[in-house]
Amino acid sequence: MQKLAAIKGMNDILPPDSARWEWLEGVVRSLMARHAYRNIRTPIVEPTPLFVRSLGEVTDIVEKEMYSFEDRLNGEQLTLRPEATAGVVRAVVEHSMLYDGGKRLYYMGPMFRHERPQRGRYRQFHQIGAEALGFPGAQVDAEIILLAHALWEELGLKNVRLELNSLGQPEERRAHRTALIAYFEQHQDQLDEDARRRLHSNPLRILDTKNPAMQELVEAAPRLIDFLGAESLAHFDTVKAILDAAGVAWSLNPRLVRGMDYYNLTVFEFVTDQLGSQGTICGGGRYDYLIGQIGGKPAPAVGWALGVERVLELLREQAATVPALVPDAYAVVPDAAALPQVMAALQRLRALGVSVQMHAPVTAGEGMGSMKSQFKKADASGARFALVFGPDEMARGAVTIKPLREALEQQEQSLADLPAWAATLQSAR
């Protein structure tokens, strides 16, 4: 039969690499709990109109990248989620979650976009995000930026810079849009095909072009921040003042517009120079009009999302220390006849929080294997200790605990006293 393989750009995550993912997710869960953010999980498949309405019909995501299809049973138009914010907002609206005040939420999971796979950019990719819904104040913009900054510190990431901009309010963007169109119309001969297509539908996105031939033109374009009124500027100034007080460095990037249409006021990105063209590892901003666009009672919101693959790639680039996921102990069992008693003892240890890997043969009928081969596998497992359930130990109702990584004396422990050893092991973590 033909050998089947994963879809291009949709990757398996295998041990031991999956341990890095688990570690990152664990750090995030702990950090979110300390900031009082609660987990939300939304479906991978959503109605296509949700993304058309939230992201904008002329965005690259909607025009080129979404995996959309028709449900064969009822004809409904469905899409694999290309990002999570729209689904979170849909869930908040559908379940009236803001009836008793604002909510701080976080999520993690796979997203899907039909792109050319490259380093840090895949067709199935994973995001972790935080959303604060129902809070209008600039202090919440700063809070959520500080939340991301705290994550980099906990992960040990270096050389990640914060870029800020403000998109103001819709009427300010409209005035800027008019000036932007007039400017680019005067230089149509310098626009590439993509920019000409967006000139009258979404000119703000031209500022985000990656075309080197257009960089000088874009640098000289009218700046949105010059069109902001007093309230928008005051909001932005408050965000910057809080970041300054917290000692978080930032730089103004007037070309920062983000890829979704739903943003207003504060937008931001965390960027590194170590991942080439995929240097944005986290981005977000305020989106005060999205809840109303999706059909809920208008309410303010702000959030961010990070790319898990990019963060893990940056950790590799910086040789950051990621704890290995290895067992505490490896059970060496020379005689299969002892397995019922051994496995009962191991279950007691596991119930007490000790991670134990039991030796098992990989070929039918070969027996348990020699002590030498079992010790080799115990060493290869990365375990700190070997638990030796030999015939002599079994006859005495005991186990020999042999250190594999540390210069400690081996000891014999009664099976009945294993809880005491487990407690000592736990206290030394």
Automatic annotation (TrEMBL):
EC nos: 6.1.1.21
Amino-acid positions noted as binding L-histidine in the UniProt annotation, renumbered to this chain: E83, A84, T85, R113, Q127, E131, R258, Y262, Y263
Catalytic activity: tRNA(His) + L-histidine + ATP = L-histidyl-tRNA(His) + AMP + diphosphate + H(+)
Record's protein name: Histidine--tRNA ligase
Main localization of the protein described in the UniProt heading: cytoplasm
Gene this chain is encoded by: hisS
Cellular component annotations (GO), alphabetically ordered: cytoplasm
Complex and partners: Homodimer.
A Gene Ontology biological process term: histidyl-tRNA aminoacylation
CDD domains for the chain: HisRS-like_core
Protein family (similarity comment): Belongs to the class-II aminoacyl-tRNA synthetase family.
PANTHER family recorded: HISTIDINE--TRNA LIGASE, MITOCHONDRIAL-RELATED, HISTIDYL-TRNA SYNTHETASE
